[in-house]
Structures are given as structure tokens and as C-alpha cells.
Inverse folding.
């Protein structure tokens, strides 16, 4: 009977590793604080010495949308709308800041041990049990 990954590895090891890994990475990602400095008046891009803000990016977006509503086949309207929307999305993503919340070293070590210990157990279960338990074959010396 085949176990996890089609090998003779342990199915129990697979699920235990999966649960530990998911729990550890959940706790790790739950500890990350995401904040943004995005606003319509904040600088998204710099072109030359001028800063382009989120409000400035909305102008070509609105013009492009108006051109699309007037003529849906307007290539310039689509270019303005899609380009401004892409610039706005890029600006929002670029303004995201991530940091780890304050925690003790014990909490961090426990989270990392859960996550990467579970990952190791999970990956080990995909190997065959016979590979883990058998000693290396003795090599015969030629005389």
C-alpha cells in the first residue's frame, strides 16, 4: 500500500507535518503588520524633479474612462485608462510597509520551529520509509 506522495512514507507523518507547517506559517504571517502610506496627496512616483501623486494619476484615468464611454473602440482612451490604473495599483503596492509585531524571542523560536519543523516532517514523509530505516549497504572490498 502506498502512503504519502505515492511512496511507502508514513501518511501519519505527512498529516502531522502538514498541520505543524500550516500552524507555524499561519502564526508567522499573523505576526506581520502591514501598513500603507498611500493617500491622494502622497507622492507615488518621481519623474525628473516632480512628484506624481495619487490625485494626479486619477486625471488620465478619468479622461480615459470618458473617452471609452464616448467611443469604446478608442485606443487612446483604453491606453490612458489602463495605464493610469496600472500606475495607481503599482503606487499602492509600492507604498506598503511590512514589519514584524513585537514578540519575545521564545515566541519567535516556537513559531519558526513549528513552521520549519513541520516543513521538514512533511517533506520527509514524501520519501519512502525503507530509505530511512535501512542501513547503507556494506561494500565488498576487492582483494
Amino acid at each position: 500500500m502506498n502512503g504519502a506522495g505515492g511512496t511507502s512514507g508514513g501518511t501519519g507523518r505527512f498529516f502531522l507535518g502538514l498541520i505543524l507547517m500550516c500552524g507555524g506559517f499561519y502564526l508567522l504571517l499573523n505576526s506581520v503588520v502591514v501598513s500603507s502610506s498611500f493617500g491622494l496627496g502622497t507622492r507615488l512616483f518621481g519623474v525628473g524633479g516632480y512628484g506624481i501623486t495619487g490625485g494626479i494619476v486619477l486625471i488620465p484615468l478619468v479622461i480615459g474612462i470618458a473617452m471609452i464611454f464616448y467611443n469604446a473602440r478608442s485606443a487612446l482612451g483604453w491606453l490612458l485608462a489602463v495605464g493610469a490604473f496600472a500606475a495607481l495599483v503599482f503606487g499602492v503596492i509600492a507604498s506598503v510597509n511590512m514589519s514584524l509585531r513585537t514578540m519575545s524571542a521564545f515566541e519567535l523560536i516556537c513559531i519558526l520551529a513549528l513552521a520549519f519543523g513541520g516543513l521538514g516532517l512533511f517533506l520527509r514523509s514524501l520519501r519512502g520509509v525503507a530509505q530511512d530505516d535501512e542501513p547503507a549497504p556494506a561494500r565488498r572490498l576487492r582483494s
